[in-house]
């Protein structure tokens, strides 16, 4: 073989022919990547059904992939799933979109997330957090993920549509169900066409109908009213125009709205769930957080100006996002032959990068399994490479709603912690389930203990 024809590959993971490591992936995808990275290093490869897959775990390599969005795209794998799973559910929204269309949509939507608009939603976040607290009673045992989902659903719906919700269970069940089905499809080496009347395809269509009815009803009601002065994100999206004066179609509005809705609702709820779990497991951290909140807020309602006075709260949030990054896996597809570091990537190869694995690398985070918010104090933060901490992604596709999410997390945690300490119910099995997002597999049951200091 000539030197020109040779291909440089990283170590090849040992696995069964054709199916590769599919069994281990299906059992626990995140643990498989964590174990394999610790065994094979920052770069390795494997194949499943003739599909070459690269896994990268070095910040420099991840940076090169994420910054080069034109070569490393989402489009082909999402198009494959578009009619049979989460891809169809999200449509051509920012999360699954790609290429020039993604670029134009990002430019169109970006102004809606400017800090001056995001600040307007603080009162909404406070209101619904207090509304949740009004439903709680000291001594109650709550499934905390369910409560956090309800809280962030209310906030997302009010912020996006300026409406109240009374269909929480239907919408939440549809979103969760779609995640489960999508993961099954993406893991399977044999993908049946979406039009086949299988039980799975029929279930997916039913879930999509539930969500579509809710979202289209809201959009159509707003369009018929002609009233776009609600101050919500939907109003801004409906009025947004590109440089040619073109706005979004109803279908595109639906796709962007459901993408923002799912991304803004579920990811924040899961982060809150993991955060209260970690506080309960680490009472010294919890006590320090309560001391800061009590000293800063006392009994009064939190305001925007308070957020910069709660540095330890921010450190707790950052450390939670390190251990349990809800967007735990990035998948890219090589749109052309290229080279990353020392390795040749061919058109069609898949690239996997996992913040869940990266954030557990002892080179960046000593004692990586320990919950230690001090990693993110002002001094220690300086030593963390930009691409060694990716709770919101990186490069041009960094999460558009990260400021919204951080403000929501700050307000919700501070307001809840003013009134309650959450204790874990003993003898329950709590483990992460790496679906499209990182969820607690069996939920998290916690007892509400009233804070005596407030």
Quick overview:
The chain is 50% helix and 11% strand.
**In the CATH hierarchy, what is the superfamily?**
Cytochrome P450
Order of helices and strands: HHEEHEHHHHHEHHHHHHHEEEEHHHEEEE
Instruction: Write down the CATH class.
Output: Mainly Alpha
The residue fraction in helices comes out at 40-55%
Q: SS-based structural class?
A: alpha+beta
Would you write up a description of this structure?
It contains 18 helices and twelve strands. The model is unreliable at 75-85 (pLDDT under 50). The termini are far apart. It has helices at residues 22-27, 29-40, 59-67, 75-82, 86-90, 99-109, 115-118, 122-135, 144-161, 168-187, 199-225, 233-239, 250-281, 283-297, 311-323, 355-358, 378-381, 402-419; strands spanning 43-48, 51-56, 72-73, 141-143, 330-334, 338-340, 343-345, 350-353, 420-424, 432-434, 438-440, 445-450. It is globular. The chain has a single domain (22-450), classed as Cytochrome P450 (Cytochrome p450).
What's the arrangement of secondary structure elements?
Blueprint: H1 22-27, H2 29-40, E1 43-48, E2 51-56, H3 59-67, E3 72-73, H4 75-82, H5 86-90, H6 99-109, H7 115-118, H8 122-135, E4 141-143, H9 144-161, H10 168-187, H11 199-225, H12 233-239, H13 250-281, H14 283-297, H15 311-323, E5 330-334, E6 338-340, E7 343-345, E8 350-353, H16 355-358, H17 378-381, H18 402-419, E9 420-424, E10 432-434, E11 438-440, E12 445-450
Parallel strand pairs: 2-8
Antiparallel strand pairs: 1-2, 3-5, 4-12, 5-8, 6-7, 9-12, 10-11
């Amino acid at each position: 073989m000539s030197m020109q024809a040779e291909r440089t590959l990283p170590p090849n993971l040992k696995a069964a022919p054709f199916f590769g490591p599919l069994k281990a992936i299906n059992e626990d995808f995140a643990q498989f990547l964590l174990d394999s990275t610790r065994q094979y290093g920052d770069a390795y490869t494997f194949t499943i059904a003739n599909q070459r897959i690269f896994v990268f775990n070095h910040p420099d390599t991840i940076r090169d992939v994420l910054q080069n969005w034109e070569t490393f795209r989402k489009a082909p794998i999402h198009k494959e799933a578009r009619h049979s799973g989460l891809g169809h559910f999200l449509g051509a929204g920012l999360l699954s979109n790609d290429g020039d269309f993604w670029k134009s949509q990002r430019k169109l939507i970006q102004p809606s997330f400017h800090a001056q608009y995001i600040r307007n939603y603080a009162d909404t976040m406070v209101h619904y957090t207090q509304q949740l607290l009004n439903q709680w009673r000291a001594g109650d045992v709550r499934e905390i993920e369910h409560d956090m989902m309800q809280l962030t659903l209310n906030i997302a719906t009010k912020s996006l549509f300026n409406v109240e919700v009374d269909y929480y269970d239907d919408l939440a069940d549809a979103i969760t169900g779609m995640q489960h089905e999508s993961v099954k499809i993406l893991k399977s080496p044999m993908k049946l066409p979406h039009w086949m009347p299988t039980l799975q395809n029929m279930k997916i269509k039913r879930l999509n109908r539930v969500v579509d009815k809710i979202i289209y009803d809201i959009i159509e009601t707003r369009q018929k009213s002609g009233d776009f002065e609600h101050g919500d994100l939907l109003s801004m999206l409906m009025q947004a125009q590109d440089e040619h004066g073109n706005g979004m179609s109803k279908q595109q509005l639906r796709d962007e709205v459901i993408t923002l809705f799912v991304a803004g609702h579920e990811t924040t709820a899961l982060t809150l769930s993991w955060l209260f779990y970690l506080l309960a497991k680490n009472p010294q951290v919890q006590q320090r957080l309560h001391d800061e909140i009590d000293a800063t807020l006392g009994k009064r309602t939190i305001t925007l100006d308070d957020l910069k006075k709660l540095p330890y709260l921010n450190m707790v949030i950052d450390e939670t996002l390190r251990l349990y990054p809800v967007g735990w896996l990035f998948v890219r597809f090589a749109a052309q032959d290229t080279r990353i570091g020392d390795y040749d990537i061919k058109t069609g190869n898949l690239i996997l990068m996992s913040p869940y694995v990266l954030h557990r690398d002892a080179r960046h985070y000593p004692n990586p399994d320990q919950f230690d918010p001090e990693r993110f104090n002002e001094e220690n933060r300086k030593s963390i490479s930009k691409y060694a901490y990716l709770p919101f992604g990186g490069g041009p596709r960094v999460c558009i709603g990260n400021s919204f999410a951080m403000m929501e997390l700050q307000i919700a945690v501070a307001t809840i912690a003013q009134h309650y300490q959450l204790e874990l119910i003993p003898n329950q099995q709590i483990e992460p389930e790496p679906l499209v997002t990182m969820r607690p597999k069996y939920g998290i049951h916690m007892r509400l203990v009233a804070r005596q200091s407030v």
